[in-house]
Specification:
The complex is a heterodimer of chains A (about 55) and B (about 250).
Chain A lengths: L1 H5 L4 H43 L1
Chain B lengths: L3 H6 L2 H33 L13 H28 L2 H33 L7 H22 L3 H15 L2 H11 L10 E2 L2 E2 L3 H33 L4 H8 L2
Antiparallel strand pairs in B: 1-2
Helix pairs in contact in B: 2-8, 3-4, 3-6, 3-8, 4-5, 4-8, 5-6, 5-7
The chains are: A mainly alpha (about 55), B mainly alpha (about 250).
């Protein structure tokens, strides 16, 4: 296991590369979902306002 | 040729509904391909005869670099469609593609830098491939900056679309930079003179990772584009009916 983690001595380069990529993958999912939820929330608020006006 | 599907896709409610159905499928397929690719990338693929285990950065670096150019091509194509057909959905796709593309251009540059340190002895070199990839990042940042600087959405769409189309010239420069100039960067990874430049034990995990990144990009792009379409169409009746009914 330690042998695998050491990546033949290249661990300071290999693991940060994978970690950074994983962070970008997760962050883009979070940001995309947050933007969609915010737009849905805004649309819902407008729908409720219109309903209460009529 | 029947173009009905194209015009239907340009309809915001139709796009919103279809994209919503596609996202879970794309996300699951991306997760499966990514898991299979990672098993190969960090497990079954043998060490490189020159770079040892250090070459394993290729399995995240190359898919990120491919995604960075793919996202730009999608952005520019959508911007062109938006300009020509005045299609709001196309502009929403272009705007959504930029943020994801910028992130993965940064990842491609950073992982390339981390790979370069042990192999070239430096984190950065003003090499044609690296420099043109950096220009791509600036194009993305310029595109997003221009969009956010203009309050009127229609004007922002038109101005940013022109910038996106001008920047397309950088895509062949990135691709062919390793052929056109003496480059420190290695040559084409997948094909060399029409033949695969890697053995199948390395090539299959790399292709799986590339597939996973592309499916992931499609899923994230559609989620972002759905949000962007809702934001643009917030006063439309279909939005109030679709969202207000939930």
């Amino acid at each position: 296991m330690l042998h695998w983690l050491s990546m033949g001595g290249y661990w300071p380069y290999v693991w940060p590369s994978y970690a950074l990529t994983l962070c970008a993958v997760v962050l883009n999912i979070v940001l995309a979902r947050r933007a969609l939820r915010a737009a849905e929330g805004e649309a819902r608020r407008r729908a409720l306002t219109q309903r209460s006006d009529t | 040729m029947n173009w009905t599907w194209f015009h239907r896709l340009g309809s915001p409610p139709h796009f919103f509904r279809i994209a919503g159905k596609m996202v879970p499928w794309l996300a699951w397929l991306a997760a499966i391909a990514g898991a299979a690719g990672l098993v190969g990338a960090l497990g079954t693929a043998p060490p490189d005869y020159q770079q040892g285990e250090g070459y394993r950065i290729i399995f995240v670096h190359v898919p990120s670099a491919v995604l960075s150019t793919l996202a730009y091509a999608v952005m520019a194509a959508a911007a062109a469609v938006g300009l020509v057909w005045r299609m709001n959905v196309a502009h929403a796709i272009a705007a959504s593609s930029a943020a994801v593309g910028a992130w993965f251009t940064f990842v491609a540059l950073a992982t390339g830098s981390l790979w370069g340190r042990p192999m070239w002895g430096t984190y950065w070199e003003w090499d044609p491939r690296l420099t043109s990839e950096l220009v791509l990042l600036f194009l993305y940042l310029g595109y997003m900056g221009l969009r956010s600087a203009i309050d009127d959405t229609a004007r922002a769409d038109r101005a940013s679309a022109v910038l996106a189309l001008v920047g397309v010239i950088n895509l062949p420069i990135i691709h062919y930079s390793v052929d056109w100039w003496n480059s420190l960067h290695q040559g084409h990874t997948l094909l060399k003179f029409g033949k695969a430049s890697m053995p199948p034990s390395m090539l299959v995990p790399l292709l799986l990772m590339m597939l996973a990144f592309m499916l992931y990009f499609a899923a994230v792009l559609l989620v972002r584009a759905r949000g962007e379409v809702l934001r643009r169409e917030r006063n439309a009746r279909w939005v109030i009916e679709a969202i207000g009914a939930r």
